[in-house]
Amino acid sequence: MAHQSPSSASELPFEVGADVSAKYRGAWCEGTITEVARSLEAKIVFEDGGGAHMIKEEKIRGTLATGGTVQAKHPDSGTWTRGTISRVHDASLYTVRFPDGDERKVRRNFVMLMGRPHFTEGQTLGEFPLTDPEYFADDSPILEEGPRKRRRDANGNAAAAAAATAAVSAAATSTPAPAPAPAPAPAPAPASA
């Protein structure tokens, strides 16, 4: 699951007390964040040709923001070197308390803000129009028929690309024709008496 990284060090995606959904025992369950063990890292491209490295925020001087110029302790030389932040990664651990009382520490990719319910609390599945799942209450189709995308060759020609693809797949799936059986040898002529 992809997630957005914080754009600056002062902001984390979740705060203590936030209602979230967190992965717990293989399922996404509702819970509340009770503690945050903050840990941010930044990928820094060093200006001195020292490459790009992930550096923890405590080894960075300056504002931790994507595109920002900072000084960071280079992992190879140990010197403070100027560089540019290419991305910020949230490696924090979030403690989530679930309604049954259990608490778990989870990483950022196992937590998301709790969304609104998909149906009201009084509704049951019997009230949903599941007899024709492509149409719901407003009679608009969920899946619309549309033109299919065609492959194009390097010159933008769809027909040539389709014919070439068909020829390649036919050649790959076809088996060679068996060799013709040799003609039977003529029967020997009967001996004359």
Structural overview:
The chain is 8% helix and 31% strand. It has one helix spanning 158-173, and strands spanning 19-24, 27-37, 40-46, 52-56, 60-61, 69-73, 80-90, 93-97, 103-107, 111-113. The strands form two sheets. Strands 9-8-2-1-10 form a five-stranded antiparallel β-sheet, with no helix packed on it. It has a five-stranded antiparallel β-sheet with strand order 4-3-7-6-5, with no helix packed on it.
Feature tags:
8% helix; five-stranded antiparallel sheet; mainly beta; 1 helix; 10 strands; 193 residues
Write the SSE topology.
Layout: E1 19-24, E2 27-37, E3 40-46, E4 52-56, E5 60-61, E6 69-73, E7 80-90, E8 93-97, E9 103-107, E10 111-113, H1 158-173
Helices and strands, in N-to-C order?
A: EEEEEEEEEEH
Measured by DSSP, the beta-strand proportion falls in: 25-35%
Tertiary shape: elongated
Gap between N and C termini, in Å? 95 Å
Helical percent range? under 10%
Biggest beta sheet summary: 5 strands, antiparallel
| Helix/strand/pairing category | mainly beta
Rg, please? Answer: 33 Å
On the 0 to 100 scale, the average pLDDT is 74
Work out the number of β strands.
10
Strand order of the largest sheet: 9-8-2-1-10
Could you write a compact summary of the structure shown?
The protein is mainly β and 193 residues long. It has one helix spanning 158-173; strands at residues 19-24, 27-37, 40-46, 52-56, 60-61, 69-73, 80-90, 93-97, 103-107, 111-113.
